[in-house]
Design goal:
580 residues; 48% helix; binds magnesium ion; 3 domains; eight-stranded mixed beta sheet; Glucose Oxidase, domain 1; 13% strand; TIM Barrel; binds phosphoenolpyruvate
């Protein structure tokens, strides 16, 4: 028996067989060749293209049989790219004249395609480079013999361990056979962790070397409450973990009974507690956990695992499903926040030296106004069915908000012209998650109907700590005085302009922080469904007056650990403590 420790990324305990998977993206090296090797390299290229073609044809017939018609169009596009003569002639020419290996030559062809596509004016056609990238990646994989290992779909009771699991992979995990996940990298506020919690999949992250040190098939216990992974447990440890698991599930079950109780303090102050969701299936869970609507719907998940963007109708259908799931409560839809650690197909992380500071979120949306307007129109159309709010992510200044709002107005005019109904007074908010937005909060507050603080990013950018870097997780401090001062400033700016201050980062879901957030004056907290009841329980045991005192008390300290000690001395987290 041995124990590994990591970051407790998603609660719950699971026992199963380990299944190690490798989802690392392919590395390509270029090296010089002798003239006699030219024909060999050319033949390797031709063979890899043929193998890729056969694979795609197979995939196409499989999808046709399994109702995957929607995706057939993309496979056909990929087959057409593959059949393009120029792909072969240009690459062969580079092998011959550049005297380099086939992989290097193919990468150079891709580079030229990227340059050509970047010059295309039509944004839709310009973005088709992603299809070319996908196809070339397939050919490169075939040449290297490295296949992107598929996620296991039919093995039962497995616990997946991987160096990394992308958010896109998380969406493809089959909950019926995968019991938990373990990764070597990633932090609690990474999107993979957020999705694990949304899917109620226990997870431990940042477990160094686990994929090299262990073999497939060993029995493991993943304890997502303590952040440990126990390998080949002895009988006694197994029984102990089983009892912890039962106890955790019992407490969860008991908590569910408190779902109908109102989110109100001892002295009658109401706070909206809402859910963060990624896929429509989560809507029911938010209501079951007593959430009064959705404070953050991360729409980017709909854009993942596919070769092209969903059109307006598809978006409308998905948003409508979500709206119906939580009606009559309000739904806050955030516009696409892709980039950073949430890559869409064809977005190459390596292409940006600093993805977290790169073409993310509103920057991406504003760079493709036609796609952005499709999303805005779809959101507007759902607003005809019930209360919907719209929210822009990663706002850094006024120009971005104004441009986004201008496009929203255009989208409204387009709908009006077609006689399509929507809520013309739809509320528009911005996420405050970049330090510049905190500094400008008073000015931003005049432009919008509400603020929602994204503490996951705000902490990352304020403290210059990569939220996904497990090595720095101890420095990722929500109670850092710089963060607390920012929060105070945001609420003051919002209330000064008469708009509500909401908070939808992971900080909202940790009951330890509830007194500060309440005392600072936040009007709404939005969190993973699984956290709502614990937070509500603390809220119901607290008075506003006491929360204000606690919040003020926090500002007397100058380090995060001092604030934490003070906070812990002020409140008892009965429920959580009884589990940990
Ligand atoms: C945040 O940054 O706190 C947030 C809620 O958005 P996301 O986690 O999707 O970046
Ligand atoms: Mg964010």
């Amino acid at each position: 028996m041995r124990t590994f420790s990591g970051i407790a990324a998603s609660p719950g305990i699971a026992m199963g067989k380990l299944r190690i998977i490798d989802r690392r993206s392919i590395t390509v090296s270029e090296y010089p060749i002798q003239s006699e090797a030219v024909s060999h390299e050319t033949a390797r290229l031709a063979q890899a293209i043929e193998v890729t073609r056969v694979d795609l044809e197979l995939l196409k017939s499989r999808l046709a049989e399994t109702n995957g018609e929607d995706h057939l169009f993309f496979i056909e596009t990929h087959l057409m790219i593959l059949a393009d003569e120029r792909l072969v002639t240009e690459t062969t020419e580079t092998i011959r004249t550049g005297m380099i290996n086939a992989e290097g030559a193919l990468r150079r062809t891709l580079h030229r395609y990227r340059e050509t596509f970047a010059r295309i004016d039509d944004p839709y056609l310009r973005e088709r480079i992603s299809d070319v990238e996908t196809v070339i990646e397939r050919v490169l994989r075939s040449m290297s013999g490295e296949t992107l290992e598929p996620l296991p779909q039919h093995e039962n009771h497995i616990i997946i361990a991987a160096h990394d699991i992308s958010p896109a992979d998380m969406l493809q995990i089959n909950r019926n056979n995968v019991l938990a996940i373990i990764t070597e990298i990633g932090g609690r506020t990474s999107h993979t962790a957020i999705l694990a919690r949304a899917l109620e999949l226990p997870a431990v992250m940042g477990v160094e070397g686990i994929t090299d040190l262990l073999l497939d098939g060993v029995s493991v216990i993943v304890d997502g409450l303590s952040g440990s992974v126990i390998v080949e447990p002895d009988q006694e440890t197994f029984q102990l973990s089983l009892r912890r698991k039962q106890h955790y599930e019992y407490v969860e079950y008991e908590l569910l009974k408190t779902a109908p109780l109102p989110a109100v303090t001892l002295d009658g102050h109401t706070m909206s507690l809402r859910g963060n969701v990624e896929i429509p299936e989560e809507g029911a869970s938010v209501l079951a956990h007593g959430g009064s609507g959705v404070g953050l719907y991360r729409t980017e998940m709909l854009f993942m695992n596919r070769a092209s963007m969903p059109d307006e109708e598809e978006q409308l259908i998905t948003y409508r499903t979500m709206q119906q799931a939580i009606a009559p409560h309000p739904l806050t839809i955030r516009t696409l926040d892709a980039g950073g650690d949430k890559l869409l197909e064809g977005m190459d992380q390596a292409a940006e030296a600093n993805p977290a500071l790169g073409v993310r979120a509103i920057r991406l949306s504003l760079s493709m106004p036609d796609e952005f307007k499709k999303q805005l129109r779809a959101i507007l159309r759902v607003s005809a069915d019930g209360p919907v709010r719209i929210m822009f992510p990663m706002i850094s200044g006024l120009e971005e908000v104004r441009t986004a709002k201008k496009l929203l107005e255009e989208a409204k005019l387009e709908l009006n012209a077609s006689g399509i109904r929507f809520d013309s007074a739809i509320q528009v908010g911005v996420m405050i998650e970049i330090p510049a937005a905190v500094t400008l909060a008073d000015l931003l507050a005049r432009e919008v109907d509400f603020f929602s603080v994204g503490t996951n990013d705000l902490i990352q950018y304020t403290l210059a700590i990569d939220r996904s870097n497990e090595q720095l997780s101890h420095l990722y401090q929500p109670l850092h005085p710089a963060v607390l001062r920012s929060l105070r400033r945001i609420v003051q700016a919002a209330h000064g302009a008469g708009i509500p201050a909401c908070l939808c980062g992971e900080m909202a879901g940790d009951s330890l922080y509830l007194p500060i957030l309440l005392g600072l004056g936040f009007d709404e907290l939005s969190m993973g469904a699984g956290s709502i009841l614990r937070v509500k329980q603390i809220l119901r045991r607290c008075s506003m007056e006491r929360a204000v005192r606690i919040a003020e008390g926090c500002f007397a300290f100058s380090t995060a650990s001092e604030v934490e000690m003070y906070l812990k001395s002020q409140i008892t987290l009965d429920v959580t403590e009884s589990i940990d």
